[in-house]
Amino acid sequence: MSIKGKCAIVGLGVTAMGKVYGRSGTDFAAEAIQLALDDAGLQKKDVDGLLINANMSPEMSPLLQMTLGFKDLSLLNVMNAYGSTTGTMIQYASMAIEEGLANVVVLVYADDPLKPNQGAGSSYTGSHMFPMTGMEGLRLAYGLYGANPSYAMAARRHMHLFGTTSEQLGAIAVSQRKWAQMNPWAQMRKPMTMEDYLNSRYVAEPFHLFDCCLVSNGGIAVIITSAERARSLKQPPVYVLGMGQGAPGDDQRTDREPGIYTGAKHSGEKALKMAGLELKDIDICELYDCYTYTVLVTLEDYGFCEKGEGGAFVADGKLGPGGSLPTNTGGGELSAYYMWGFTPLSEAVVQARGQGGERQVEKHDHMLVSGNGGVLNYHSTTILSKYPA
Amino acid sequence: MSTKQKEERMTQSTNYQKPVPIPDEASQPFFDGARERRLMIQQCTTCGAVMWPVKSRCDNCLRPTVTWVQASGKGRLYSFTLMHQVYHPGFASEVPYNVAQVDLEEGLRILTNIVGCSNADLHIGMSLEVTFEEISDEVTLPKFKPVG
């Protein structure tokens, strides 16, 4: 028995995003959940499952249940597989609902890494994240701060092996900015040309500033329930057709290249198989985009093009508005907001419902949603549809 | 060590502004080795696997039979980045500085900096060998330089 099409996303709540100061992670979580309940036409008392996730906020703990006054839950957990968590939350929620362990499950992400008078770049770096003790201390001693340099080294390796260029990475950034200009939730809505991209300062070469995602304060909640119940609620159901995970690991040995061959391949194959779909059936991709390179390597590993051909594949702008493979249609983490896997998931829900307004993609039957964490070490894939089968 | 060398070392240590790792019990053999200008890696005496960075148990067979051995110190540049953003004032005068991954002959991919050549001369695949930079009385950092 497959779980395909048995559950659906019925509620979405997105708070203000970006440099929103003076609000706690808990406050963002509360607002996101309230918005999602209203969106779904559900009451708080209908909720019997709560799955919680954050990049950093210590407030996203099991205590959040009591802080927000949820009673008599039958499913509760804080989950973390880094940037791939969102997909894993959908998996566990769906399995719990299908088995009768819970009926209405809220998935919530909230974080407040940005502080006034502090650069975004220092939000996820520094000794509070990487201790100086032992060999872990070598990272900062060598000057490896945050995720930028690690992804930059993966991208540099890809350039070396396959001739990938900065302009090709730039095509991803430029395409996504075009989408963001049509997204009222997006933080970055100023037009961006290839020249703007290439002229943006280097952060960790080969990465320019515009290769790197935003940092955002905010919260997103999604509500998932059985397909049957979904049909009597306020919004068009967004059915969960396929799911997969892939965590290839990196053991620091030289016989593998985890920055080049990612878990997207395994998790994508599993998800498509469950959904009974092929890549050609996918209308829209919402791909985790902590960096431009993440999009490129994910497209390759999903099989939209051969390994090494991602640069040429994206260069013609096919990911942008009017292109043949609309991707990150809200601007993604590069130009809209950075809420880990809830960034691609939230936009997939909007597109599946047909509520994208100016940026709505005409054909929106099947959405491929990815999550990625670590340095391309953890991957999840979710396939959503406006149809249950 | 001559008095002059000691003075030079103290000056160097005092002026060193970048973060300095704090050796702990588990990593002490690595830092002891580096101080003696030897690049130390771990190896499992049960299954023979080599590993990086420090582990209490073998990450291949999960047994606690992990010992330290000296690596050849030879390898090739796997990839690198040039860091332009300053996250710590100690690096401010050196941007852009390189951070690199080196594939050791022993089959490990380790993090380091490349010294002894300009950033413009860095190219993936280049042959490298270990060198050592003493940054405090306790800590010497293994770095890599072009061979020859």
Please, could you describe this protein's structure?
The complex is a heterodimer of chains A (389) and B (148). Chain A is an alpha/beta fold and 389 residues long. Chain A has 13 helices and eleven strands. In chain A, strand 10 and strand 11 form a beta hairpin. In chain A, helix 6 packs across helix 10 and helix 9 crosses helix 10. Chain A starts with 6 loop residues before the first strand and ends with a strand. Chain B is of the alpha+beta class. In chain B, 14% of the residues lie in helices and 33% in strands. In chain B, the strands form two sheets. Chain B has a five-stranded antiparallel β-sheet. Chain B has a three-stranded antiparallel β-sheet with strand order 2-1-3. The longest helix of chain B has 13 residues.
Give a short summary of the structure.
The complex is a heterodimer of chains A (389) and B (148). Chain A has 389 residues and is α/β, with parallel strands linked by helices.
Strand content of the residues of chain A, in percent? 15-25%
The span between the termini of chain A is 14 Å
Average pLDDT of chain A = 96
Please indicate the percent range of residues of chain B in DSSP E strands (runs of 2 or more): 25-35%
Q: What fraction, in percent, of the residue positions of chain B are helical? A: 10-25%
Average predicted confidence as pLDDT of chain B: 93
Helices of chain B, by number, come to: 2
Shape of chain B: globular
Taken from the alpha-carbon principal axes, the silhouette of chain A is globular
Largest interface: A-B, 41 and 45 residues
Spans of chain B of at least 5 consecutive residues whose pLDDT stays below 50 are none
- Uncertain segments of chain A are none
Helix content of chain A: 25-40%
- DSSP strand count of chain B: 8
Number of strands of chain A: 11
Strand order of the largest sheet of chain B: 6-5-4-7-8
Largest sheet of chain B: 5 strands, antiparallel
Largest sheet of chain A: 9 strands, mixed
Structural class of chain A: alpha/beta
Order of H and E elements of chain A: EHEHEHEHHHHEEEHEHEHHHHEE
Q: Topology as H/E string of chain B? A: HHEEEEEEEE
